[in-house]
Structures are given as C-alpha cells and as structure tokens.
Design goal:
The protein has a three-stranded antiparallel sheet. The chain has a three-stranded antiparallel sheet with strand order 4-5-6, with no helix packed on it. The protein folds into three domains: 1-52, no CATH class; 61-158, DNA polymerase, domain 1, CATH 1.10.150; 167-340, Intergrase catalytic core (hpI Integrase, Chain A). The longest helix is centred in the middle third of the chain and has 20 residues, at 121-140. Helix 7 (179-191) runs parallel beside helix 11 (290-302). It has 15 helices and six strands. It is 50% helix and 9% strand. The protein has helices spanning 29-47, 60-74, 77-93, 104-116, 121-140, 167-176, 179-191, 195-199, 232-244, 269-282, 290-302, 307-313, 319-323, 328-331, 334-344; strands at residues 2-5, 8-15, 18-26, 206-207, 212-215, 226-229.
Length: 357
C-alpha cells in the first residue's frame, strides 16, 4: 500500500515476511502507486532468485527527476540547487536514452563540451562527479545492474594557491573599505569564521554569558555544532551594537528589508566577497576574503597552538582539512622558527653539558 506523509507518498509492503517501507519521493499518487508496484514486483523476483534489474523500463531523464526529488528530501537546499543547475546543463549534452546505455562515452561528451567552452578542469570534474553520483544512486536503487562510472580518472587540477594577508596590508584594507565591510573584516580577523557564517551572523547565535558564538549543525558546512570563544573586547562590542540596534535580528542586516515586519534579511556573502576583492585589487593586495581565514589559522600555529585545536576553531572534521591552511613558512624564516621553538622548550638545557663515560 501507499500512504501520504507530508507532501510525498510512502510505500509499505511485505515479501516473504520481510517488510519494506520507505519514501517514493513522489507527490503524484498515480506515479507513487506505479513506483510501489514496480518495487514490490522486483522484490518478489529478488526473493525468488530471479533477475531483478529491468533495463528497458527506465529512461535517463525520468530517472533524473526521481533523483532530484530524492535529493530534495535528503539534502540541503543549496546542494539541490547546484544539482538542478548541473543537470540543466547535462541534459543539453547527454541525449535521453535507456538508463542502462549510460557509459564512458557520455563522460567524454561532458568533458569535450567543457573544453570547447574553455571551462576549467575543476568545473568539468564537478559535472562528471554529478553524473557519477547519479549512476551510483541509480545502482543502489536497483534501476541499473551496475555502475558503469564507478572508476573514473579526474582531469588534472593545479593545487590551489592559498594567499595570506600581512599586518600592513590588513591595516590598509581597514582604512579604505566602508564601515560595514570594515566591521565584518575585523570580526573575521579575530574569529576565523567562514564568510557565510560571519556575514549572516544573528544576535541569537551570540551567547553573551558564555562569551562566544554558537552554531547548530544545520548552520555549519560540515554539519556539526561549533562554539567559537570570543575575546571580552569583542563581546562588549557586540553588546553595544545590539543596544544601538535593538530591532535588528542580524548583526549586519541588508538595507533592503521591510522595517515594519520586524524580520530583517542578512547581507549576501557573494556581495561581500565581491566588494572585498574590489578594494583589495584597488590597493594592489593579492587576496580574497577567504585569505583572512587562512591567515587566522597560520598565525595560531605560529604562536604554538596545536593543529588539533586550530581545527576545532575552524570547525574541521579531520586534520587534513586544517593542514592546507597552514603557512607558517610564509610568515617567518627557518631561523626565526628555530629560535621560537628553542625558547619554548622546557626544561632549558644547562650551560655546560658533561659527557658521561
């Protein structure tokens, strides 16, 4: 049988005392019933040891629609938006055909289309990865007998060049940018937050008693809760700003919000990033807004903070993600690093060492 939960229909049936229940990801009752009947028939064939894959019943585009509906239920909205945009492009490259006919020729078509349009290898790899994610999902859902794109070589991509900002350039930026951008840069310089987190910061995320900012898993890129400790001066600055703007929900609301509703809108990260790049380019500074986060991590490492602790501040899941942010060698010479390490060593070696024979 099928039944409705929210906007979509769910299936529930038994085959040889084994219960199967889940979402069809479909809002249309007729299509959900067809999905239920097809799945039940395939489970019966599977229970009897017969062939379970039907290669002629599924077309590429119809399966893509099911794939995107499934993504809407299980993935965040921004990810679904990217997948939908990517498939709008892939549909122009890959013709509609039986699902089982997808193969490496389609991957070559995607790559050739990207190279013909002078796209970067990283962008082409993202489109190929989306095609492979689709075939993997279709295989898991028993729409395909095997994933033909399970093993693919990626196009070579140069290592990203991570840029840092020194103290002099940072001061030049603060003196040149508008006041709102200056505040955002200053807060991020002391916290190392991601661009979206600092731009969309709300007052209810700031715990003034605990002295920090708390993010829920839904608000973080890696999907885990994070607490960022703040300096007393920064806490005091947030308190004064909130007292000056008691009707604001966001610390930096957009100018285009209806003040009568009591609900403001935050600034957009893309706009802040573009504005930062404009002023950096005008000042001759080779940096992006993300350079602030890189510089934050590098300076903490230079001052003796462990890689693990820096990773916690940056809300990373593994140390490998933190390592690419470390550029201690760019901020000090080997001689300076050795002197700093020797000063921090304990206990200090005696002035004269005696050799014990």
């Amino acid at each position: 049988m099928i039944y409705k939960r929210g906007k979509v229909y769910w299936y529930d049936f038994r085959v040889k005392k084994v219960r199967y229940r889940g979402s069809t990801s479909l809002e249309n009752k007729r299509k959900a019933q067809e999905f239920h009947d097809d799945l039940q028939a395939r489970k019966k064939r599977e229970a009897n040891g017969l062939e379970t894959t039907i290669t002629s019943d599924y077309e590429v585009y119809d399966t893509v629609e099911k794939y995107l509906k499934y993504s809407k239920l299980h993935l965040r909205g921004s990810t679904v938006k990217i997948k939908t945009y990517t498939w709008d492009i892939l549909k122009r490259i890959i013709p509609d055909k039986p699902l089982q006919a997808i193969g490496t020729k389609d991957v070559e078509a995607v790559r050739d289309h990207g190279l013909a349009n002078n796209l970067k290898n990283s962008t082409i790899n993202l489109r190929v990865n989306e095609l492979r994610a689709f075939t993997k999902w279709a295989t898991l859902k028993k729409y395909m007998s095997a994933n033909p794109l399970a093993t693919l070589d990626k196009l070579p991509v140069p290592e990203p060049v991570d840029k840092l900002i020194n103290d002099a350039d940072f001061q030049r930026l603060l003196n040149a940018v508008p006041n709102t951008l200056k505040e955002i840069i200053w807060v991020d310089w002391q916290t190392g937050m991601r661009l979206a987190n600092v731009v969309k910061l709300r007052y209810d995320q700031i715990d003034f008693e605990a002295g920090g900012i708390e993010f829920t898993p839904d608000e973080m890129k890696k999907g885990k809760s994070v607490f960022i400790d703040l300096e007393p001066e920064l806490i005091e600055w947030f308190q004064k700003r909130r007292a000056a703007h008691p009707d604001h929900v966001h610390v930096w609301p957009s100018r285009y919000w209806a003040k009568g509703t009591g609900q403001d809108r935050p600034l957009q990260p893309n706009g802040i990033s573009s504005q930062f790049r404009y002023y950096a380019r005008e000042l001759g500074i080779d940096a992006t807004f993300h350079s602030i986060r890189h510089t934050f991590a590098t300076r903490w490492i230079k001052n003796g903070v462990s890689l693990y602790m820096v990773g916690k501040f940056l809300s990373h899941k593994c140390s490998q993600s933190t390592q690419r942010y470390l550029h201690v060698e760019d901020l000090e010479s080997q001689k300076e690093a050795k002197q700093r390490a020797m000063q921090n060593m304990a206990p200090q070696p005696p002035k004269r060492l005696q050799v014990v024979r």
